[in-house]
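Reading is simple: the token line describes the chain's fold. The lines below illustrate.

. . .
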Amino acid sequence: MSSQIVVAVDGPSGSGKSSTARGVARRLGLAYLDTGAMYRAITWALLERGVDLDDAAAVAAAAADVVLRSGTDPVNPTIEADGVDVSEPIRGADVTSNVSVVAAVPDVRALLVQAQRDAIRDSLDGIVVEGRDIGTAVAPDAPVKVYLVADADARARRRASEQGHDDADATQEALARRDHLDSSRAASPLTKADDAVLIDGTFLTLDEVIDAVVALVEEARGR
């Protein structure tokens, strides 16, 4: 039997997925994949090319031509689009405001889901994968599935801090719009897998959330 372990971490924006997933991967010596960064990198590339993001056919065609490379080191995760390190620019306002539109295009999701499955297959010892449809679409057979949530205020404060400002109210409105787009799209909407463990990190420290996920992995390995 393979010793590979796949840990799927899903949840809405600002719930702490990235910090949790990276922390779990570092602690357990696993690879790490930020699928959201992949969608952001595609969005960045399409914006750079001047693609009309309201034209789904044009988005699909252009996305298929973008060369993505995702580093899976949890200490220093990287993301490249067409040979350009886009780790910083994909966090900008233009990408943030458009990524849900790009991610809703079925052909884009199919393209990236395959790339994500390839990354899982190529991870020899195991991998922690974070996103919005990992447990439901990308790796439905993952032995460990987590759905991470936090209340609206906590998510807004966390995301505002990440973006270097203190306008939590505006951030909360933006997160609400993102939640609606992600959960209402036809292709792989944001939803909790039936067998995922719900973890509410609102009143937990990051270490406590990581501890909870690591315990689930250890339980899965012990069966």
In short: Residues 5-211 form a domain with the Rossmann fold fold (CATH 3.40.50.300). The CA atoms of residues 13 and 175 lie 7 Å apart. The radius of gyration is 17 Å. The chain has a mean pLDDT of 89.
